[in-house]
């Protein structure tokens, strides 16, 4: 099985990649289209030059690899993708052979977390509009990171059942530290997940969004709520 897990930034996506890697039967790929996105847009992201230099930046070659065989002789392949990396002209036909899963997080939490790593942001940067459009084009299960953090075993068990993949308890724990399959951007973005050995507990109240970022929240919230209404139910 090839699993394309789509999410915006600061959305539990790296922890989910570690969880699937911990199964032992699953290859993983960390944001395959990040370098092509940076090379094509010139976006001013942390470590942009290093990312383009270290990773394949040709979107056609990345797409061909996504359509190719599962690496390492593994049974399954988990690809961590971000919808806002898939700009116009980037191939997307490979995703038709994948089980597409859509990971969401409340925009107030995304905005607060993103601001800690990159002070400037736009609605395009946090990816809600792109994710909604991609979910409409590539339907699949929607899962909220809040539900995963509240009850990881139940949430991942339900997700695995939804996509026809056996759940393994090994998905709930991993050793601390970086991974060989991390993108080079891990040095800037992954410090918290590198300290983790499993999913953190339930998050507290929503953070207060400062006035200068209220327009971001107002723009993203209806898109999040549209997908949240279709998320796997844990009631």
From TrEMBL:
The keyword Lipid metabolism does not apply. It comes from the Bacteria. Keywords: Amino-acid biosynthesis, Branched-chain amino acid biosynthesis. InterPro entries: Class-IV_PLP-Dep_Aminotrnsfr, P-loop_NTPase. Gene3D superfamilies: P-loop containing nucleotide triphosphate hydrolases (3.40.50.300). GO terms for biological process: branched-chain amino acid biosynthetic process. SUPFAM superfamilies: P-loop containing nucleoside triphosphate hydrolases (SSF52540). Belongs to the class-IV pyridoxal-phosphate-dependent aminotransferase family. This is Sulfotransferase family protein. It comes from Roseicyclus mahoneyensis. The lineage of its organism: Bacteria, Pseudomonadati, Pseudomonadota, Alphaproteobacteria, Rhodobacterales.
